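Support case: flavin mononucleotide complex. Customer-provided input:
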Amino acid sequence: MKILAFNGSPRPKGNTRQMIERCLKPLQEKGYETEIIQVGGTLLHGCKACLACKKTGRCVFNDDPVNEWIEKMKTADAIILASPTYYANMTSELKAFIDRSGYVLGPTGILARKVGAPIVVARRGGAMNVYNTLMAYFGIHSMIVPMSSYWNLGIGREQGEIQNDEEALRTMDNLGSNMAWLLEKLHA
Ligand SMILES: Cc1cc2nc3c(=O)[nH]c(=O)nc-3n(C[C@H](O)[C@H](O)[C@H](O)COP(=O)(O)O)c2cc1C
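Agent response - structure generated as follows:
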């Protein structure tokens, strides 16, 4: 079982990363393979709507890692999309990745029935908008989303502050264990 987590924060050790790690722990304890891909801070093109992907099955941009990440998504069993809240939305890097991977993979149907989950961090407000937008990606691709004991968001500003949000950490523990449970049922 392979779980891929995309970290939309440009801070590789920030709160978003720490939330991802907490969620992955129960999955790692089951012996599942996990990988965190650092999307934030990577120079990525936005989708240019050329629709070349409809013919070639690849994004036309070859000078950034999006095609490589798309290949990894094809073989993953579960995909986590995680982002801090920036002006009530996800980071621009994660958005670029979502638009381009969605356009390449959407028509193939390959994401259907893979497991997906969003994770969001905010200092104060706007996290639900990010959460809902990430959920829309899983929804439009017929993915299956495990839930938790609260919506998958945590509160913190400086790196590491998320460790003070006990409920968020508990929510990540439950999300990870629900994801493990679901993966087991789906692959029984
Ligand atoms: C450009 C920018 C915009 C932000 N906008 C918001 C916002 O709209 N709402 C909010 O609650 N926090 C906002 N924040 C705070 C971050 O979401 C918060 O610091 C978060 O913990 C960062 O996660 P990270 O440590 O994973 O990078 C913003 C931060 C930056 C740098």
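The first helix runs from residue 15 to 29.

Case will auto-close in a few days if no follow-up is received.
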